[in-house]
Amino acid sequence: MGISTTVMKCKKCDLIFANPLPIPANIEQHYGIPPESYWSAEYFKIRDDYFIKQIQTFSDLYGRTNDLRALDIGAGIGKCMIALENSGFEVWGLEPSNPFYEKALQTMKIEPSKLQLSTIENAVYEKESFDFITFGAVLEHLYNPSEAIQKAAYWLKPKGFIHIEVPSSNWLISRIANFVYKLQGLDYVTNISPMHSPFHLYEFGLKSFKENAKKHHYSIAHYSYEVCTTYLPKSLNKIFVPYMRATNTGMQLEIWLTKN
């Protein structure tokens, strides 16, 4: 018999989560795997435009373009660190998975002094050290995302920005899939994956951050939705992609936070 849990959605803030939340004995149970097993071969290629859109958004919001320090939380194999460094940032990274960390050092040639092997819970940086902190496809993997945001805010300089990319709890495709399951009389939902890859523990709505901001004294400076992959036949994308763009029902929510 397998292990099951209940997937729930907060009516106040649109957060989707598991109750109870399955927590492994250690992080290596989920992420102690070769990077090649976690990502497709295409992921290991760094395009010239990788993370450039996000860097430009930061520049538009922040204004200053010199003497910038950035922190990549959940740095993986170091792709974002490389993109930030190429754009003139002094960059540090934080990665909890030992195989991902080793890949970043050996293959991507990230400087060991700049990349810390640690969870965010155990990481230590000085107060107000960074102009720019990014959680790129990371927050949904953390057991306590609210505490992670608070810790990042402690490390953030005044007027700096925290960049977050998370799965949207209002994604149209998952709602359609859940409706089909319901028609079949199945007690399934397609949201989150706490016990299998990619180990997403949460999906977030814009309200999730608005409610959290009230408690922890930060502001939402900017947000957008990305359609990303639809998993639909190409013939249907002509209909669904424009609709998701127009209705903010794409797969990914991208949000920018700043301290009050």
UniProtKB/TrEMBL annotation:
Listed GO MF terms: methyltransferase activity
Organism lineage string: Bacteria, Pseudomonadati, Bacteroidota, Cytophagia, Cytophagales
GO biological process, one term: methylation
UniProt KW keywords: Methyltransferase, Transferase
Superkingdom of source: Bacteria
Protein name (Swiss-Prot/TrEMBL): Class I SAM-dependent methyltransferase
InterPro entries hit by this protein: SAM-dependent_MTases_sf
Entry-linked CDD domains: AdoMet_MTases
Pfam families the record matches: Methyltransf_23 (PF13489)
